[in-house]
Amino acid sequence: MAKELLVTDALSDKMIQAGAKLVERLDEDASNIKSALWLYFPDARNWKLILASEIVETDGPRKLYEKIQGANRNAAESEDVISLNDISVTTPKHQLISMLAMMIGTGQGISGIRFTRNNINGIYIDDAYIYRSIH
Q: What is the pTM of this model?
C-alpha cells in the first residue's frame, strides 16, 4: 500500500510529485479536474492541495472526495499519497480559481508553475504551485 505524505510548511519535491501523480490518476478516472494547485495559507502555515471540478457543482464535494480516495487506493506501493486532510475541493467558479484561470491558462496537461507573492484583482496569493488552470 502507498504511504501517506507528510505535508510540511515548506513545499517539498515529494509534495509536488504526489500532487502531480494524484491529478494523473484522477484524469484516468474522468474526474474533470479544471484546476489543481498547492496553495499556501500563511496564517495557518500550511499547504493545501486545491482541486476544482464540475463534479463538485453537479454531484457535491463528497463525490470528488470519493474519487480522490479511489485514486489514492490505486497508487503504486512506492508512491506517496496525499491525505484528504490536506486536500480541499471546490468548483471551477470559485473566485480564486476563476481568477487564476483567467490569468494563467495551462491547458489540459500537468504543468509546474510557481506563483508567489502576487495580487489578482485584490486577492493576494502568498505562494502557489499550479498544475492545471483551465478557464
A: 0.93
